[in-house]
Design a protein that fits this description.
With 257 residues, the protein is α+β, with helices and mostly antiparallel strands. The chain is built from six helices and 16 strands. The longest helix is centred in the last third of the chain and has 18 residues. The radius of gyration is 19 Å and the shape is globular.
Length: 257
């Protein structure tokens, strides 16, 4: 793993383990991607893991909240018009991803704004078909959505065996220019798909092999801001936990289709 993937994976783990309901839901998706399971071996379909709605939404929310990068751009051919500002040719523009990631105007906050941008909400990037939405489920329409037939899930819906609401989909539609942890345009980080697969496989394999219990009941950890703008933010305090091996160990088997 690279230096950004490690702290990002920590936050991904911490938020899932800290929320027992979320852990159960995510485990349902992970179990759905297990292709082989014996007393000593588990093999996961890496492609299937990377396409699970809740896993993807949790991953995207982790990057929204904990990736802070400065993105540099320069108009090379002519002056650039950005809203009411004109940027002269060959002048450098510096964009902070955190400004976009923490601007509440960009994001689904839930039906009554009960999920502010400074809080972690694993369902923030889930959409679902109105035809498959249970009548009792709370729902709201995202103002930024470009898919009128889809609605944003404002609260966790009933979860079947696969671990996510029936009809739920992960979507970044409507978040162009808002979710930019890898930069944007043709200069996006070329390793973004690999990082995503690393994180999801690491969680699947470690969670399948070990039981992890957080010893502190706090709902958030302090964030170390000393490297703000350089990638993934690290925790500024320790997260005490207990870990023990489950009865069935996990091999390093990975199956990609």
């Amino acid at each position: 793993m690279n230096s950004n993937a490690i702290p990002a994976t920590f936050w991904f783990f911490w938020h899932i383990v800290q929320d027992r309901t979320l852990l159960d839901r995510v485990q349902g998706e992970v179990n759905h991607c297990r292709t082989t399971s014996t007393a000593s071996t588990s093999i996961f379909d890496a492609t299937a893991l990377s396409n699970q709605p809740l896993l993807q939404s949790t991953y995207a929310e982790t990057f929204r909240k904990y990736i802070a990068v400065y993105i540099l751009r320069k108009p090379e051919h002519q002056d650039a018009q950005i809203i009411n500002h004109q940027v002269p040719k060959d002048k450098t523009i510096v964009i902070s991803s955190a400004s976009a990631h923490m601007d509440k105007r960009n994001w689904n906050l839930g039906t009554s704004d009960e999920h502010p941008v400074d809080h972690f909400w694993a369902d923030r990037f889930l959409t679902y078909s109105s035809k498959s939405t249970p009548p009792s489920a709370a729902q709201s329409t995202a103002s930024t959505s470009t898919m009128p037939e889809q609605k944003i899930a404002s609260a966790p819906l009933p979860v079947p065996s696969k671990g996510h609401p029936e009809g739920a989909r992960f979507s970044l539609n409507g978040y162009s220019g808002a979710w930019i942890p890898y930069g944007g345009g043709i200069h996006q980080c070329p390793g973004r798909h690999w990082v995503k697969m690393q994180m999801l496989l690491s969680f699947a394999m470690i969670n399948d092999a070990f039981e992890i219990e957080l010893l502190d009941t706090k709902d958030r950890l302090k964030v170390d801001m000393r490297k703000f703008g350089l990638g993934a933010l690290q925790p500024a305090e320790k997260a005490r936990f207990k870990i023990r091996r489950k009865y069935r160990a996990v091999s390093r088997g990975v199956e990609a289709k």
